[in-house]
Amino acid sequence: MSRHLTQAYLALAAICLIWGTTYTAIKYAVRDFPPYLLVGIRQTAAGLILLSWAFMTGRVRAAAFPPGMLDADMPASPLTGRYVFRQVLTGLCTITGGNGFITWGMQHVPSGLASVIGSLTPVVVVLINLGWRGSERINSRIIAGVLLGFGGLGLIFHHGWADFMNPLYRLGILGCFASCFTWSLGTVMSKRWNDPRVPPSLNAGIQITAGGLGGFVLSGLFDVSHQIRHTPESWAAVIYLAVIGSAVAFTLYMFTLRHLSATVSSLYTYINPIVAILLGWLVLGEHLSEWEFAGMLVTIGGVWLVNRGATLSD
Description:
The protein is 75% helix and 0% strand. By secondary structure, the protein is mainly alpha-helical. It is built from 13 helices and no strands.
């Protein structure tokens, strides 16, 4: 195994733990912050940190003016207007949509349930790839995994169908599914559009900044209130989400996408629900029934089958 491949798997392992903890942090933050305003503050701050780092360390200049760029046999600079536009579009999907919708949804659903819905990301990534110029072939494992994954969600909801009588609960679930789709779409975009000559921190900086600014737009349109309750717990959660959950973890994710497939890069969703559900139970006092535990295992098993099927199709 090459050094870069080893580093990519280590980065993926770190993402598994970090993004598993962000569900609990979001739960703390949305108690005192409007959801989309939280996304705007958290992600714009993280994006500006990454862009400042990229400028100070010369990564922007190195990407814009690669050595030998003027040589006849060298390609032009990758940082074209079209490239930056694609990074912005990707950020609007992964950050404004993916992070924004789930932050809003988690006002009304438990963090563990939100994480299990998010664990369907590899399933949705495969389905998007199937529809995007037919780039992946479907097989029996993929079909079985998709059915198993959604069957697991049925088990999770088994004891709580009465909750669907609450319109806010229904909207929270819908927000989590919308987040899963937009994040998956952004993952496919990143894998297809990221240029290997551009450092992961720069790609992440552009995407996160664009996504954070999109969060401010959604805040102006949809947040019921823009009032913040300033508490130590909520600000600690916001700082953790911005620095560790976004700036560090998203850069690691860009690095992972550079060296691993989009489907393999989505494997953090196996671990995230376990971390999120355990933290939700231990820290937030969220209920964990036998049905929810069984449904989580079935859903993760379905995601594993989809990944195996996608690997065989490569």
